[in-house]
Amino acid sequence: MKRFTILFLFVFFMITTSSAEHIKFMGVPVGGNVAAFKDSLKAKGFIYKKCFKTLYSFEGIFANEVVAVEVLASPKTKQVCKIIVYFPQKDTWKGLKSDYFRKKNLYKEKYPLDKDFEFFSSPYDEGDGYEMRAVSLGKCNFASFYYATGGHIMIQIDEKQRIKITYEDRENIKISQSELDQKALEDI
Q1: Which helix (H) or strand (E) holds 187?
Q2: Whole-angstrom distance, CA of residue 167 vs CA of residue 150
Q3: Mean pLDDT across the stretch 90-99?
Q4: What Rg, from alpha-carbon coordinates, does the chain have?
Q5: Beta-strand pair 28-29/24-25
Q6: Model-wide pTM > 0.90
Q7: Which of 81, 32, 31 is nearest to 54 (CA)?
Q8: Judging by beta carbons within 10 Å of its beta carbon (0-12, 13-18, 19+), is residue 32 exposed, middle or buried?
């Protein structure tokens, strides 16, 4: 009975501890409101560009490159729930693919890889010479998903011929979705 109690307390402690943690972006926890997070990004040298509803845009240096960063917050409580990093656009498939795998391997050094996939959708194939057209049409499916404390991270090639990295906070994305659902119910 004593072992069971100790095991139960250990499991309870692990669950409550892990659920309270938030994912970090550049060492800054993504918990709390967007105003504090904006100040943290500004302190790291990011330049605030604009805001549209709950999306805040910045530019700055991340992983030794000039990037655009979007910070998404929940609509009602303004809790930061997602960070999206956009790297510079590439002109060639070779450069884009190389950049994707370089970033994928870099993240693998710090975070456990959950799953990944790399393929082209029909009628495109790697080596056909039309890879960048496939990218622009959303037919390039290159993505890697990583576990992170408090959330997850996704690296992908997007339709604008660039690498996109998304940090999503597990707790705050639930809050945001709940607030969006509530708003939709109020609208209908």
Answers
A1: helix 170-187
A2: 10
A3: 97
A4: 19
A5: antiparallel
A6: no
A7: 81
A8: middle
